[in-house]
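The pair is quoted verbatim underneath.

:::
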Amino acid sequence: MGQGGAKDTVHRRTLKLILAAWVLVLSAAPAQAERATPSGLPVPRYVTLKFDKVNARAGPGDDHRLLWVYRVRGLPVQVIAENSEWRRVCDPNGGLAWVHKRTTDGRQNVLRMQPGQVSLYKRPNTTAPQVAYLRPRALAALTKCDKGWCHLKVDGISGWVPAASVWGTDPRPQCR
């Protein structure tokens, strides 16, 4: 075998090692994406604030600086990180802070952030009869979302709105 044959063999072995390494990396990727959180719940996810006074801190602990106080019970926030006792949340205005887990509730609400009201429809279709309107900054309980539409309940009335018309449904991280 000449020098060219030896180089080809070494080259093939190197390629095989590189391919084997990529297979390992790609097979490990889903495991990293599904890594466990302290709560066992996915991150990001939406929760609501349980009380009408919730301290927002700069870090996960009472010893961290108080940034502000949330004063809206039921406000939807997105959990973007967590430890065993604290949740880092993104609020509808883009604020990032840490809140204690006992101040959050797993129920999902949404908030109308855009100016102007949005119609609630009897069915998930703009040609369906309108049953009510959701005003700006109004909170509503989220029942479910399907194919770009969300079913909401507010003040004893339920109806469908386009998912993009309320804050608290987009599964992507809302704050960076």
